[in-house]
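Notebook entry, cofactor series.
This is the third protein in the set we're modelling with a bound small molecule. For this one the ligand is flavin mononucleotide. I'm keeping the input format identical across the series so the outputs can be compared line by line later. Sequence and SMILES below, as received.
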Amino acid sequence: MTSTEPRLQHLYLSHLAPAFDFGAFKLILDVSRLRNPAAGISGALIFDGERFCQLLDGPQAAVQALIDRLGTDRRHVGLTVLHSSANPTAKPQQGWSNGYCGANDLDVFAGEDGLRGEAALAAFMAIVAGSDMSD
Ligand SMILES: Cc1cc2nc3c(=O)[nH]c(=O)nc-3n(C[C@H](O)[C@H](O)[C@H](O)COP(=O)(O)O)c2cc1C
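Returned structure with ligand:
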């Protein structure tokens, strides 16, 4: 990705669909590890056993194409956009990582009163920092 290329940063929360179990997460990790670096997408995906929270950061077209695929993926439901920023000022996330967070960590984003925008981004980064992450 060049510095002139528009960048998109996108953070969302979703729920594992009832028809799927933990095995879905493993398959999602496999495809993410393969495709995200190839597309220049960095960020992180965390899972608490029931909910996903994912930050995507990269070239606008590539991130938007992934958002479109996520929108039709039946393994999760109830997608809520927590933060979306074209040409974000924050420095890009380095690399791609994933991990498991505590059962209550994602509660701060839940419901209409949940954190949104830059506050949500900051909270997500804090959760990632405190979680057992791998790449
Ligand atoms: C919670 C969640 C997170 C996902 N994250 C990614 C991701 O970071 N990168 C990716 O390529 N696919 C991700 N996927 C899978 C995509 O929705 C899609 O299945 C995959 O990219 C393959 O798309 P295709 O079969 O249309 O080529 C995720 C799916 C879910 C449910």
